[in-house]
Amino acid sequence: MSIEFFNKGMEPSEFLNDTISQKLEKTVSKFFNTPVSIHVTYHVENHDHMINLKVFVNKQVDFTIQAATTNMYQTAEKVIEKLNAKLHKLKEIRASKDHRSIRALSPEEDVVGEDDTRGYISAEDIIKYEQAKRHQDERPGANEA
Fold it and tell me: Does pTM top 0.85 for this prediction?
C-alpha cells in the first residue's frame, strides 16, 4: 500500500502522518488483496481542520472520503471511521447476491467467487458498485420522494 500526504495551509507533524498511515494500513488491509494507493490531503480553513482521502485501486479513483472538525486528530479519527464504514458497506453489497444494483449490472456473473472466502473487495466490484450508484442517481425521478 502506498500513502501520499499533501498539505494545504498547514504543515502536519510526523506523528500525525504516522498515526494516519498506521490506521489506514490496518483498515484497508482487511478489505483489499490488491495494491492500493491513498492520497491524504490536509487542509485548514478558518477553524475547520479537514482531511480528504482519495482511494485508488488499479490506478482509478474508486472513492473519496472527507471529514472536518475543529481538531486535526479528531478529523483523522472521523475520516478513518468513514473509510471503515464505506468498506464494510461495499463488502456487504458484494456478499449479497440479491442486491439490485449489482444484479442489474451483471445478472449472469457470480458476485462472490467460489474461491473467495476471505471477504476481500476487488477493484472491479467497487467500480461496478460506483457505476451502478451513479446510474441509479441519473435516472429520472430517482431523487424524488
Answer: no
Is the Cβ–Cβ distance between 44 and 7 less than 8 Å? no
How do residues 111-137 score in pLDDT, each as one tens digit? 444 444 455 677 777 888 888 877 777
Per-state percent for the chain, helix, strand, coil, to nearest 5: 45, 25, 30
Top-ranked range on mean pLDDT: pick from 7-11, 37-41, 96-100: 37-41
Domains assigned to the chain:
2-138 (3.30.160.100)
- What's the sign of the alpha-carbon dihedral 126, 28, 94, 133? negative
Buried b (16+ CB within 10 A) or exposed e, 53-67: bbbbbeeeebbebeb
